[in-house]
From TrEMBL:
Domain Response regulatory: 2-114
Pfam family, one: Response_reg
Domain (HTH LytTR-type) ranges: 142-246
Protein name, per record: LytTR family transcriptional regulator
Keywords: Phosphoprotein
Length: 246
């Protein structure tokens, strides 16, 4: 199983290499440290079957490599942040490991890859992509910018996401932060037991609902913290009520 590591931090790269050495089926054929190096390597070499890739590199995101040089290999992303989950699974990703990587998580990711490959080794990439799409990933934390600083926000701390002037913000008890997501992307990756899209503008966290008001005309309004009031759109009222008791 020919494999490449894409990682710009040498200690992390060496650690992952040592971990992969425990799997006799893995043959490491390359180590890449930057987007520029990755584009060159994948342009000049036979693509491996499996790629372990960090996302944030010194000169950009590893996604840039595969957007410039499409690969038929499958990717296991290794990163400290999970805000890129949705994009990762659109680019041949079969798993998404958060650092620090645990032995059992690495082993599980490799076994998942092997389970996609038929015993006769005839790989049908379209069939594998269909299997990948069925994998449900849940966003648990988001990286936001505050000036020149970065902050990790746990999704359990977010009361709601809202769209304003074509930007989607996440709201905590402290303040709101702009994000890189669309509401549609968030709907696909947030924990559906906790978060619900009540209208075109808001996705709310059930933990922050203070009161629910109904009226004879089937209008449902939420007293919400820290927002004062949010209205559930009429076409979502039934789904909203079902979600509250699911």
């Amino acid at each position: 199983m020919k494999t490449v590591i894409i990682e710009d931090e040498k200690p992390a790269s060496r650690k992952l290499e040592r971990m992969l050495n425990e799997f006799p089926e893995i043959e490491l054929v390359g180590k890449i440290e930057s987007v520029e190096e990755g584009v060159q390597w994948f342009s000049e070499n036979e693509h491996p079957q499996l790629i372990f890739s960090d996302i944030v590199l010194g000169d950009g995101l590893s996604f840039d490599i595969f957007e410039k040089v499409p690969t038929k290999g499958f990717i296991i992303y290794t990163t400290a942040f999970d805000q890129y989950t949705l994009k990762a699974f659109k680019l041949n990703s079969i798993d998404y490991l958060l650092k620090p990587i645990l032995d059992e998580d690495l082993g599980g990711a490799i076994e998942k890859y092997k389970s996609f490959i038929p015993s006769d080794s005839s790989v049908n990439s379209q069939e594998i992509k269909q299997l990948i799409k069925k994998e449900k990933t849940t966003l648990s934390r988001i990286l936001v910018k505050i000036g020149y600083n970065l902050k990790i926000v746990q999704t359990q701390e977010i009361s709601c996401f809202f769209s304003e002037n074509k930007i989607v913000y996440l709201q905590t008890q402290e303040r709101s932060f702009p994000s890189d997501f669309t509401l549609d992307e968030l709907e696909e990756t947030l924990d559906e037991k906790k978060f619900f899209r009540v209208n075109r503008q808001f996705i709310i966290n059930s933990d922050y609902i203070k009161n629910i008001h109904t009226s004879p005309n089937y209008k449902v309004e939420l007293e919400f913290q820290p927002q004062e009031e949010i209205t559930v759109s009429r076409d979502r009222v039934k789904d909203f009520k079902d979600w509250l008791v699911s």
